[in-house]
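Database export, one record per block. Field names are fixed; values are copied verbatim from the stored entry.
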Amino acid sequence: MRQRRMGKFRSLPSWGGGAGEGLMWAGAAAAIGAIGGRTARRAALRGVGSLAIATAITRTITRPSSGRHGASAVPFGRSASAAAFAVGAALEAPRYGLGAAPVGAAIAASRLRAGASGLGDVLAGLAIGGFAAALTCHWWPLKPEKPAGAVPPRLPAPALPAGAGLFVVVNPGSGVALGTGDSAAPTERLRSLLPEAEITELEPGDDLGALLDKAASRAAGCGGALGVCGGDGTLNAAAGAAVRHGVPLAAFPGGTFNHFAADLGVESLEEVANAVGEGAAVSVDLARASSPDGAEEQVFLNTFSIGVYPELVRAREKLEDRIGKWPALAIGLTRVLARTGPIDVAVNGEPRRLWLLFAGNGVYHPAGFAPTYRPHLDDGLLDIRAVDGSTPFARTRLLVAMLTGTLHSSRVLVATQMRRLRLDGLSAAPHFAYDGEVSQGPVDSLVLGKSVRALTVYRPVTEHDEVLGLPAAGRPQA
């Protein structure tokens, strides 16, 4: 009886060389994601993804035998899993990979001492694990740790020690701030960091735009700056107010994803507070979507989109913190395309049938429809990506290209960079999205454009910032 029960346990599917080790690596990923910021979460997700690929490879090339050895017939499985997790994490952040490496080395050494694996098995496992980690880059390209490039402003931003002259609006409803390193409520934390700043918290029923305009006006009157704490939608509103009143913006990350803050290179409230005190700032582009006559206008710091893209972003973001950005994108795209259809619009006067259109404030990387980062925040360009719905089997070809990591070369994807784009016939597009915030309205035409280096934003000085007066060669200037 006992032998039969043990056989049952041996026949259970294992992940990462064994159920216990699978749980161990999952626990390690959870710990890394909990103690670190955005980079740590990426390292944890890539480590888990690498582990899953390594497990699939080992099970494919070495089928478990049906005899008494059962699943133990994969002598290099544990070494492969350990190497996959450590190398995968190291690709995103070497410090986390180095932390996992001793555990993987101990597993390999124990296998050798126990005689469960030979040296050749261990080396083969290490090679498979490293290959699995490298393979993740095919679907999920690495994001550099350095912040996006930008130049200092023409007029220096004022240094505001202790926040004197800084008027901050906090939106506590922006979501849970992931990876900001601040466990206390953002309002109280900001009051501790900047005791001389005037801080207003958005209350139910308040008009966010009115509060930001009032704060920006007061900042302009005393030569100070506007501050805002919230997600990308809140920062979008604050950017418009800052430009209208001609004041710098202190963008404190306080939302769920904080995409603009990530490109800016800030992960915590402390980093922005220090930059405000030192007067360290850069100039960034501001993109605009306006009516043809210029009477109505909406700015965006990150992205504008029509078609299924707003729904795709929402579907992806619901899943990406649990399974990673690219798997979440594939699942979200499958669900969205199954229940929607293309729209008919005119792009610069030419009729087009599109599944979606994405416009980035600056050129994004990587190619495809999971833009992750921008190398520059002041390149003067719109990054236009669209999926052509008029090509045969466009929906199927799009899904296949996504799953195989070949979307950048697919014929259904149209990608270009330009300074201006006109869209007509938008009454067929019921939703627009600006920086992740969905907008609805009877708008028939929009002109997308750029205001180069129009917004001054505080951020700590980094070694990657360009020297004032020496712009990068080959990039459009104001």
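Remark 1: Confidence is low (pLDDT under 50) at residues 1-17, 65-72, 176-183, 466-478.
Remark 2: The longest strand covers residues 445-458.
End of record.
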